[in-house]
Design a protein that fits this description.
By secondary structure, this protein is of the alpha+beta class. The protein has helices at 32-46, 81-100; strands spanning 16-24, 51-61, 66-74. The chain has a 3-stranded antiparallel sheet with strand order 1-3-2, covered by helices on one side. It is extended, with a radius of gyration of 21 Å.
């Protein structure tokens, strides 16, 4: 029922949230604090006029990676071209911080299954 739904007018909203996660390799675990600080500095300098609030923190351990979360509020209207430009600036700032720290993103692992050739007839439908 529409009467019970909360409605917001995005054209009146002045603050947008950009939130995402990045995966780092366990070999970089000793640099996590410096990586977070460098990301914060890069975003702050790239988005100085629009940045309202920013958090960069270590949020989880994965099987093959550690997870950082970037969560920022920016003074741009949601879903606008300014929002997309700001989001891109944030992504480039993170990439620049990773480059400065000589850290690479940890890519997701893929599981590979091997099937014996004699068993291929069982999977002919695939």
């Amino acid at each position: 029922m529409l009467a019970l739904e909360r409605v917001s007018n995005l054209s009146r909203t002045k603050i947008s949230q950009i939130e995402f996660k990045i995966r780092l390799s366990y070999e970089d675990i000793g640099q996590v604090r410096n990586i977070c600080d460098t990301i914060k500095k890069e975003i702050a300098s790239s988005c100085a006029t629009t940045l309202h609030k920013l958090k960069v923190y270590w949020s989880d351990f994965g099987d093959d990676h550690i997870l950082l979360r970037i969560d920022g509020d920016f003074r741009v209207q949601p879903k606008s071209s300014a929002f997309l430009e700001t989001q891109e600036a944030v992504f480039f700032a993170v990439a620049e911080a990773m480059k400065k720290m000589n850290v690479k993103f940890a890519l997701p692992r893929e599981k590979v299954y091997y099937v014996d050739e004699k068993d291929l007839d069982d999977y002919s439908w695939v």
